[in-house]
Amino acid sequence: MHSGDTTVQRIRRVDLVPGYRLVQLLGKGGMGDVHQAVQLSLGRTVAVKLLSQELAQDETFVARFEKEGAALATLRHPNIVSIVDRGKTADTYYLVMEFVDGPSLRERMREPDFDSMQALRVLTQIARAIDYAHGRGVIHRDLKPENILFDDQAGGLAKVTDFGLAGLDERSDVKGRHNLTQTHMSMGTAAYMSPEQRIDAKTAGPRADLYSLGVMLYELLVGDLPMGNFDPPSVRRPLLDKRLDAIVARCLKPALEDRYPSVAAFLIELEPLIPMTVGPMPAKETPGQRFVRKGRAVLRSIWRGVTIAAAATALIIVGTVYARSRMESKRLPPGLAVMNDFGARFLLTSTGRFDTEQHALVLGDGPDTIDLKAFGRQPTLTSGAIAFSGDAAPAGRVVLDAVTEGDGLVARVTVDTQASRPSAFEPLISLFRGPKPEARSALMLVGGHDRYVALIISANGSDPLLDWSLGPDKRGQMTAPLPTGAKDVVLELRIDPVTGALTGVIGTDRDARVLGDSLSLGPDWQALFAEFPRLGLGCIEGSCAFRNVSMSGLVKPAPVAIEVVVPPTGVRPPAKVRIDRPRPPAVKPPPAVKPPTSKERVKKIDPKPPVKRR
Fold first, then answer.
1. 1-99: CATH class
2. pLDDT of res. 485
3. φ/ψ (deg, to 5) at 216
4. Beta strand 93-98 pairing with 44-51
5. What homologous superfamily is domain 102-275 in, according to CATH?
6. H or E stretch including 314?
7. How, if at all, do strands 452-458 and 465-469 pair?
8. Rg (CA), the chain
9. 332-554 maps to which CATH number?
10. 3-state SS, residue 373
């Protein structure tokens, strides 16, 4: 809060929003004030946006304020500020959002270490968020550096905020719910508005946000706004990639039909110009590098004291070791190798089945068309089967551009992996290059910001590997001595919908084997991927064939409801009722039989009549 506030004003602001304690004023906007606050029920820090009391009397501004809450409520993306609550008090309206503790993009641009590569990475994050919003029918209409905040607690993620002027795409299924724009009404910030938005805000569609992205891209690269007949970015900054000139020019076309058809198409051309954020990280000097460094010092001393022939021999030896160490140092670990695009990208389509109700996806025969993005090597598709062959690049990766949402997931594929045939010069090449890398196949879950989990097997039977990179503090590898073959190996990655435990499985039915222990991601595992992961397939060296590709979302089991009937207080339980059942009739015992006498027993034994004597 400002120091000039009176005691009465401070008490009123603290008690203004029930359930929240306002701490300090963060900023003033055209529609109201934004305060840092504490949610009393959970004790967490939030941001509370209050509509000014003057505008709270205007139905148009009230509708626009509530529209911002409705637009944010439909969006859930790591690069978009999420909504927590909204409501109305006695004399105003309020909106509660997550608290972002970092600076705005405008402040970050003024920092001396903010370079063009950082600018491209930030704009990529913003574009992904806008592409997500467009997919759900929401158009921002007021993109500018002031509306981009950095979440320092989340590793400096850029987050788009202030959807107060957001519109709903007329082509979406939510058409007409919050239509505030009127014909021939201009809304937004003039310097970042598209020509059609300046004339009529109602006609501003998704390509209006593309124009704003182009203005921001030019400003981030050059430092000025593109006014009038502006110079291309590479003219103002000669060290910039000239391919950026065409991207900026297409975004800023006056006619909207001349711009990119979508933000996704814009990202396809922009992302290859951004270097990967992950890479080999050998911080310490390797033995080979240390040997080369010492070998150079020895070579200089030998050159001064021995003959030219001995020096030449030593030079050849050192050169061989040096070339081999350089090749080995440039060799990426399997997980990072399959995530590298090697400067080549391809767009493909395949038939299949995508059941949005069951959240199930299967490649192959089916009525649906599924988009795929390939990197590195270009794969071939045949009836849902994907194959990598040849040595155009050390690795290739294909990602299915479809999401099967759920509380958990299971991805499965059948893999055949074959090593490439060695050439006749392989012994000589291996002398300089080292042993040839193994041919490997990978089943992957690929998220945003180069985050992934990969289950990797080898063609020569080496131990399988689970490799993951889910943020700066969550990277690692896990291996186990499990038997694997080269043909018809079934790989499975499963995330438990209840616990969030990730498990890598090799084989099926009785032959299924779990690779090591489960990787504990937690119930909020989707945040580690920065978005719901997509299914990916990777091939390193050699040839790889993938069949029976499928992915399904898993849902938490519903809790079992147990009804317990408790009698009301003061009511005695019903008395026990005695039921008299009829007794069976009495059965008389048979009459007692008198045991026979000794004479009767004799007669019975020898019934012959007595013989008379004469």
1. alpha beta
2. 77
3. -65, -40
4. antiparallel
5. Transferase(Phosphotransferase) domain 1 (1.10.510.10)
6. helix 308-330
7. antiparallel
8. 38
9. 2.60.120.200
10. strand
Contact 451, 502 (CB under 8 A): no
C-alpha to C-alpha distance for 15 and 25, rounded to whole angstroms: 15
Residue 602: DSSP 8-state: H
Instruction: List, in sequence order, the alpha helices (H) in 97-194.
Output: 105-109, 116-135
Whole-number Cα distances in Å, 482 to 221, 327, 478, 514, 537? 51, 30, 12, 9, 21
C-alpha distances in angstroms, 600 versus 76, 595, 604, 609?
109, 10, 6, 14
Q: How far apart are the first and last CA of the chain?
A: 153
- Rounded CA gap, 13 and 23, in Å? 9
Closest to 390 in 3D by CA, of 537, 544, 536, 538: 544
3-class secondary-structure state, position 326: helix
Residue type (1 letter), 104:
S
Please write the tens of the pLDDT for every residue from 456-488.
999 888 889 999 999 888 888 888 888 787 788
- As a whole-number percent, the residues of the chain with pLDDT over 70 amount to 72
What is the residue-wise DSSP string for 445-498?
EE-STT-EEEEEEETT-PPPEEEEE-STT-EEEEE------SSSEEEEEEE-TT
In this predicted model, what pLDDT tens digit does every residue of 161-191 receive, in sequence order? 877 544 444 444 333 333 333 333 334 478 8
- Asked if pLDDT for residue 5 goes beyond 90, the answer is no
Supply the pLDDT for residue 169.
46
Q: Are 105 and 122 in contact (CB under 8 A)?
A: yes
Distance of CA 532 to the CA centre of its chain: 4
Cα–Cα distance, 252 to 250 (Å, whole number): 5
* Backbone conformation region of residue 520, classed left if phi is above 0, alpha if psi is from -120 to 50, else beta: beta
How far apart (Å, rounded) are the C-alpha atoms in residues 396 and 413? 16
State whether residue 146 is helix, strand or coil: helix
- Report the mean per-residue pLDDT for the chain: 79
CA 602/CA 600 separation, integer angstroms = 5
pTM score > 0.90 for this model?
no
What is residue 509's predicted lDDT score, i.e. its pLDDT? Answer: 80
Task: Give the span between the Cα atoms of 228 and 196, in whole angstroms.
Answer: 16
Helix axes 243-251, 206-222, angle to 10 degrees: 140
On whether the CB atoms of residues 78 and 530 are closer than 8 A, the answer is yes
Q: pLDDT (tens digit, 9 = 90+) per residue, 347-401?
A: 999 999 998 888 899 998 888 999 999 998 889 998 889 999 876 788 899 999 8
Highest mean pLDDT range out of 8-17, 54-63, 167-176, 303-312?
A: 54-63
Please tell me the distance from the alpha carbon of residue 147 to that of residue 29, in angstroms, as a whole number: 11
Phi, psi of 346 (to 5 degrees): -140, 150
Sign of CA dihedral 382, 387, 393, 396: positive
- The torsion angles phi and psi of 46, rounded to 5 degrees, stand at -135, 175
Nearest CA-CA partner of 129 in 109, 149, 108, 155? 149
User: Residue holding tokens 């704009």?
Assistant: 123
Residues forming beta bridges with residue 45, ordered by sequence position = 38
